[in-house]
Structures are given as structure tokens and as C-alpha cells.
């Protein structure tokens, strides 16, 4: 029997447990999923929550930590965790992120707010929005989510530039690595889909925000620390940035007195851009257990040195 320890809240268990049990039952060997296995009994850690295990040393026979979330910044630096870490890729995260990013990109591109909030009987605006082909978009981060969003926006006609650590070739996207300023040059919409690491902190700051087109829109479903908040607020005041749609923050929940809440040029969404969906995620986890049991390499492994 293979023992998979479920780590998460009761709510996580209610959400993910049934799909995991159903999917594990289809594996060619028995897997016992439980929140009650001791560390010494555990073969795989299936982890939903954050900060629920601090000392991984007792997991002496475990083969991998299989994460149900995409981000790993809370565990990747834990010195007691020497197991392979596989993060969630797919599992509905990509589809949800494509929808959220496309919706918020189109909101700013079309200028929807003008009409949604301007129903006052005055026929004041007879200018149609530009076409997508006239609106350069830059996506910082070309991983599972950034690449999917970039390709969706390119399909709509946006000229998409993407930026990543290593050089890439992705159909429909002008892929750059190196100086982030080059990737931001002239961008009218900037989307952040970088992981949180020491290298990505404050990627958007006064200097890099100055490289976008004047009046650009920022959309951040990545992580809060990717943006220097004071510099963004200054750029919003100066008009360099017209609006920021922010889903993630340095402190979550975003404190009620944070200037972002009341700022007329900021839209706050409560870290809902995308979420792992139980049924497709269970298949990703099960496939990694199958791989672990048949001597094949795990999918979606985290690089500890890089931190993502
Ligand atoms: P990936 O690891 O697949 O992709 C990360 C991308 O960022 C890669 O292209 C990587 O480059 C690039 N990158 C990392 N470090 C640097 C750097 N220093 N300089 C330039 N580029 C860098 O992650 P995902 O696409 O799966 O997810 C991205 C992030 O989205 C997650 O880490 C998480 O923070 C966030 N997220 C937010 C959600 C929400 O609801 N708001 C939901 C899910 C995820 P390279 O390709 O060269 O490795």
C-alpha cells in the first residue's frame, strides 16, 4: 500500500479529497489517501495549504511533495525539506488564468468603464476603441500561465511581447530575456505572471514603470512583491500608469486601510484570478504518483536554486 498524506484544512479536504480518492482508485496500484498518516508512514505528501508543516525531517520514506497550488515560495526555502517538490501545472489553473487575464485586458483595452459608469444620458463619446493590433501587451513571465495568456491574447490580435529568465520561442509571442526594460518599452498593457523569488522582487519599480507607454495599464495576478507599491502609486499619480488591476498583494488579505482600496485608478480583486480545480488537479497528482512508482521522472519539479 502506498500512503499519501493529505495536508490542508478541512475545507481543502472537502474540496479536493473526493476527486483525489476517485482518481487514485483508477491507478494500477492501491494508494491510501488520508490526513492521518504519520510522517514515517508517508510515501507522498499531497499539500494544499501553506505553513502547515514546518519540519519535514520526520518524513523519512517520502518520495515527493506534490503541491496542489502553483506557488511554492512558502516551502522552497525550508532547509528541512529535501524531497523533490512538484508544483501544480494545469489543474484548471491555466484555463482560469487565461479567462481572468483576457477579461481584464479587454476591460482596459476597450475602455469599458467609461460606458459602464457613464450611463447619464449624455452621448459624449463617439470614438471607438482601437483594435487589439494597435495595443502592445507585455507579459512578464512566460511559464505555464504567462505563455497560455500570451497566446490567447495573440489570438485576439494583440502584439504580445513576453519576458522570461531563459530564452524562449513561443508561437505568436515576441520572446525576450535579459533587460526587463526592453520588454516593457512602449507596452500599453503589462501583465505580471512571474513567481515570487528574491530575483523578481520589485520587478516593476520607478525605473521600469518609466519604460512603458505613458498611460499604460498594469495587471498583476502574479505576486504582490513583484511591484514596488510606492513607485506604482507615484506612477498612477503622475499619469505614467493609468490604472492598475491587482489580484495579489504583499499582505493578504489587503488591509482595509491600504491606499489601493480607495484609489480611483486601482482595482483590487481578492486573489481570485485563478484557482486549482479538484478534478483536473487530481489527475496531475495521480500521474506524478504513477511516475514515482514506476521510476519515471516527476512532472513540474521545482528548482530550489531558482526558487520556482
Ligand atoms: P512558471 O514557473 O511556469 O513560470 C514562471 C515564469 O517566470 C517563467 O517563464 C520563468 O522564466 C519566469 N521567471 C522566473 N524568474 C524570473 C526572473 N528572475 N527573470 C525573468 N523571468 C523569470 O509559473 P506559472 O506560470 O505556473 O505561475 C506563475 C505565477 O503565477 C506563480 O508563481 C504564482 O505566483 C502566480 N499564480 C497566481 C494565481 C492567482 O490566482 N493570482 C494562481 C496561480 C499562480 P523561465 O521560463 O526562463 O524559467
Folded structure, characterized:
This protein is of the alpha/beta class. Helix content is 29%, strand content 16%. It contains nine helices and twelve strands. It has helices at 10-24, 93-110, 112-116, 144-155, 180-184, 206-209, 229-238, 259-262, 278-293, and strands at residues 2-7, 31-34, 44-47, 64-67, 85-86, 137-140, 160-163, 173-176, 189-192, 216-220, 241-246, 266-268. Strand 9, helix 6 (206-209) and strand 10 form a beta-alpha-beta unit. Helix 1 crosses helix 9 (278-293) and helix 2 packs across helix 4 (144-155). It starts with a strand and ends in a 15-residue tail after the last helix. The relative contact order is 0.15. The structure holds NADPH dihydro-nicotinamide-adenine-dinucleotide phosphate (NDP). NADPH dihydro-nicotinamide-adenine-dinucleotide phosphate binds next to helix 4.
Question: What key phrases describe this protein's structure?
Answer:
308 residues, 12 strands, five-stranded parallel β-sheet, 9 helices, alpha/beta, binds NADPH dihydro-nicotinamide-adenine-dinucleotide phosphate
What is the element layout, followed by pairings?
Layout: E1 2-7, H1 10-24, E2 31-34, E3 44-47, E4 64-67, E5 85-86, H2 93-110, H3 112-116, E6 137-140, H4 144-155, E7 160-163, E8 173-176, H5 180-184, E9 189-192, H6 206-209, E10 216-220, H7 229-238, E11 241-246, H8 259-262, E12 266-268, H9 278-293
Parallel strand pairs: 1-2, 1-3, 3-4, 4-5, 6-7, 6-9, 7-8, 9-10, 10-11, 11-12
Helix pairs in contact: 1-9, 2-4
